[in-house]
Design goal:
Largest sheet: 4 strands, mixed
Main location: membrane
Shape: rod-shaped
Strand content: 5-15%
Number of helices: 12
Strand order of the largest sheet: 3-2-1-4
Oligomer: single chain
Organism: Marinomonas colpomeniae
Protein name: Flagellar biosynthetic protein FlhB
Number of strands: 4
Family: Belongs to the type III secretion exporter family.
Membrane topology: Multi-pass membrane protein
């Protein structure tokens, strides 16, 4: 199992952030064997597809260079002309082959891991010049594994190449007795079949190397539990700090809410668990607005502020619970509570007028809360 430098086990898969950071640094799973196999497959297919053109160009090249006159051998300008003619004779087939191989090389290099461009690998690092670190890399377990892989690959490809060349040896020796064009065509067939068998060996190696490289890349990017926690803190912030911020935000919101309580027309209580403070603007308001609400300790504070500012505190458990659970601070009360709240406000206004000498109301009206606003959760 992968371990960190401090010995802690890397048991967690790489996060999306770590994967993206690795990609930005050019750290992607790559397979050289896949690129080599694909390059040979494309080369064999291209040579097979353009065999007629290649045979013609090679025949022209041999004919052109084997027919040099003796006087041309001692004339530099004539030899340069022959070199130019040789290049032109192979231009059609070689340009096509080189372009296809270049494209195959690019595709093979990005077939695993995808295309990615990063300046990070090109950035000079003094750590790379450290001879001790270099020796550690040279004699590490990873280097030993890569060495064994290379030996196994070379051995497998070498054995298959030896068997193929041994099989085609009689035909290869027989090329000397054939005409130029026939020998070239036959030789290209031998090259193609040799490519095919060697490519099969490399394809077999690539089929093993690709999943190994993917697995190795995931193992290298694994994280310890502490690294996951540290990354979470960096992205989302320290939970303790966030909790403190939320607490301060709640405290600020409660302070703003409590500062609005003195403007209330009435405070309705549970009488102990809930308190809500309502205000009705008789001139411009369409419905009473909830200025503050709270439970337990906050409910007590709302009542204390109401008593300090001589705001009527009315006990109505059902109405207090209904307003508390169906209205947010700063919102108007639901339309279904208009009637019962209007009855309560009318009673509060009568109490207020009674302080100025008007007749005091006999009893508080029966505040019937509609069934859909009844709350039985406490």
């Amino acid at each position: 199992m992968a371990e960190n430098e401090d010995g802690s086990e890397k048991t967690e898969g790489a996060s999306s952030k770590k994967l993206q950071d690795a990609r930005n640094k050019g750290n992607l799973p790559r397979s050289k064997d896949l690129s080599s196999a694909l390059l040979l497959i494309v080369a064999a297919a291209t040579i097979y597809g353009t065999g007629t053109l290649l045979v013609r160009d090679l025949a022209d090249l041999f004919d052109f260079n084997f027919s040099i006159e003796r006087r041309d051998l001692f004339d530099l300008s004539r030899m340069i002309f022959h070199l130019y003619g040789s290049v032109v004779a192979m231009m059609d087939s070689m340009v096509l082959l080189m372009c296809v191989l270049a494209a195959a090389g690019v595709v093979g290099s990005i077939a695993l891991g995808g295309f990615n461009f990063s300046w990070e690998p090109l950035t000079p690092k003094l750590s790379k010049l450290n001879p001790i670190a270099g020796l550690k890399r040279m004699f590490s377990v990873q280097s030993l594994v890569e060495l064994l892989k290379s030996i196994a690959k070379v051995s497998l490809v070498g054995v298959i190449a030896f068997v193929v060349l041994s099989y085609f040896l009689p035909e290869t020796l027989g090329l000397t007795f054939q005409s130029i064009q026939l020998a070239i065509a036959h030789g290209i067939d031998i090259v193609i079949w040799s490519f095919v068998f060697v490519t099969l060996a490399l394809a077999f190696i690539a089929a093993i190397d690709v999943p190994f490289q993917v697995w190795s890349h995931k193992e290298k990017l694994k994280m310890t539990k502490q690294e996951v926690k540290d990354e979470f803190k960096q992205q989302d912030g320290d939970p303790l700090v966030k909790g403190r911020i939320r607490q301060m935000q709640r405290q600020a919101a409660m302070n703003r809410m409590m500062s609005d309580v003195p403007q209330a027309d009435v405070i309705i209580t549970n009488p102990t668990h809930f308190s809500v403070a309502l205000k009705y603007d008789q001139i411009g308001g369409s419905a009473p607005v909830l200025l503050a609400k709270g439970g337990d300790f906050i409910a007590l504070k709302i009542r204390e502020v109401g008593n300090h500012y001589d705001i009527p505190v009315i006990q109505s458990p059902e109405l207090a619970r209904a307003v508390y659970h169906h209205t947010e601070v700063g919102d108007e009360i639901p339309q279904g509570l208009f009637k019962v709240v209007a009855q309560l406000l009318a009673y509060v206004y009568q109490l207020r007028n009674a302080r100025q000498g008007a007749q005091r109301p006999d009893v508080m009206p029966n505040l019937d809360v509609p069934d859909e606003f009844q709350w039985n959760g406490d």
